[in-house]
C-alpha cells in the first residue's frame, strides 16, 4: 500500500496485525523486517461483512494475553510469512 507521509512523500507501507493488541496497522516497508514477535503481515484486510466485523479476531485469550484470530485471517496473512517463536508471559502464581 502507498501512503503520503507528513512531508508529502509517497511511502510504501505494509499492513500488520498484532495478536497482542488486536489492531491492524500500517508500517513503512523499510521497518517491516524489524517488527516484534506476534505481528502478522497481511496481504489483504478482513472484510467488514465477516463475523469478526473486519477486526480480524474473534476473542481475547486472557490466559495467553493474545487475540484469537478469526478464520478469515488465514486468507489475509502473507503466505510467505514465517512466524517467530512467540514468548508468552508466564504467570508467576499458578
Ligand atoms: Zn473474520
Mean pLDDT score: 88
Query: Quick one: how many beta strands?
Result: 6
Indicate the percent of residues in helices. under 10%
Number of domains: 1
Distance between the termini: 44 Å
Structural class: mainly beta
Q: Summarize the main sheet.
A: 4 strands, antiparallel
- What pattern of helices and strands is seen along the backbone? EEEEEEH
Q: Beta-strand percentage?
A: 25-35%
Topology:
Blueprint: E1 2-4, E2 10-18, E3 24-28, E4 39-42, E5 57-61, E6 66-69, H1 73-76
Antiparallel strand pairs: 1-2, 2-3, 2-4, 5-6
The structure holds zinc ion.
Give a concise summary.
The chain is mostly beta strands and 94 residues long. Helix content is 4%, strand content 32%. The strands form 2 sheets. Strands 1, 2, 3 and 4 form a 4-stranded antiparallel sheet that branches.
Description:
The structure is a single chain. The protein is mainly beta and 94 residues long. The protein has one domain (2-76). The protein is 4% helix and 32% strand. It has one helix and six strands. Strands 1, 2, 3 and 4 form a four-stranded antiparallel beta sheet that branches. Strands 5-6 form a two-stranded antiparallel sheet. A hairpin with a 4-residue loop joins β5 (57-61) and β6.
Which short descriptors sum up this protein?
94 residues; 4-stranded antiparallel β-sheet; two-stranded antiparallel sheet; mainly beta; globular; 4% helix; single chain; binds zinc ion
